Amino acid sequence: MVKVRPMLMSDLDVVAEWLTEIPLWQRYNLTRSKAQATFEKAFRQQAVLLVADTSSEHACAVAWCIPDGAFGRSAYLRMLGVRTTQSGQGIGSVLMQEVEHIASQSSEELFLLVSDFNTGAQRFYQRRGFQHIGVIPRYILPDVDENIYWKRFG
Ligand SMILES: CC(C)(COP(=O)(O)OP(=O)(O)OC[C@H]1O[C@@H](n2cnc3c(N)ncnc32)[C@H](O)[C@@H]1OP(=O)(O)O)[C@@H](O)C(=O)NCCC(=O)NCCS
Questions:
Q1: Cross-strand partners of 147
Q2: Is 93's C-beta closer than 6 angstroms to any atom of ligand 1?
Q3: Would you give the distance in Å from CA 53 to the centre of its chain?
Q4: CA pair distance 19, 13, nearest whole angstrom
Q5: Among 3, 128, 98, 103, which residue's Cα sits nearest to residue 60?
Q6: Is 96 in the pocket of ligand 1 (CB under 6 A)?
Q7: E strand or H helix at 82, and its extent?
């Protein structure tokens, strides 16, 4: 069973530990200290921070959504991650459902970016009704384009 709940400061250590083991974020040079600092900032900014618990694993997935993070008017999903050992079991889908529910209360759309090489995540979002609407060339890393995905609610 998967339970989604607000992330607490006390989840930070465990989340930062597994997050930095994910190859995607290793490619973006995410270290434990950077992850800690980034999440501390997100807490201060009162972003939507959610984690998922399973019966065997505490805080094994995380979502970070900024309600007006896209163009100052639409919700932006800044991060979605599932611990590698737990991926492919539906946890990301459950978490995403809750993110969309929360985002839809204050925004008509949800935007997110996906690395060009991350075809698994692109499939995941497309299956959830997200459309690929553009590309930001070499936005974060010099050799990676960021795909813009977008979903309009309702
Ligand atoms: C993408 C991600 C959030 C999906 O969560 P999940 O719990 O594994 O997904 P679910 O079990 O609900 O759904 C499985 C689908 O996710 C996608 N997926 C992407 N990466 C995957 C992975 N490493 N393992 C399994 N499924 C993955 C696939 O589309 C898969 O569908 P398929 O069976 O048709 O291939 C998760 O795998 C993850 O954190 N990956 C690494 C970080 C990442 O890419 N985050 C998104 C950045 S924009």
A1: 114, 135
A2: yes
A3: 16
A4: 10
A5: 3
A6: no
A7: strand 74-82
CA-nearest residue for atom 37, ligand 1, is 87
Instruction: Give CA separation, 141 vs 29, 86, 99, 123, 153, in Å.
Output: 10, 27, 26, 22, 30
Band of pLDDT at residue 46, cut at 50, 70 and 90: confident
Question: Ligand 1 mean position to 150 CA, how many Å?
Answer: 18
Whether the predicted pLDDT of 154 surpasses 90: no
Banded pLDDT at 105 (limits 50, 70, 90): very high
- Cα–Cα distance between 39 and 15 in angstroms, integer? 10
How far from 62 is each of 5, 43, 116, 132, 141, CA to CA, in Å?
10, 13, 21, 23, 23
With a pLDDT cut of 70, the percent of the chain lying above it is: 100
Q: Which domains does the chain have, with CATH numbers?
A: 3-108 (3.40.630.30)
Distances, alpha carbon 74 to alpha carbons 14, 39, 46, 95, 142, in Å? 30, 21, 16, 19, 27
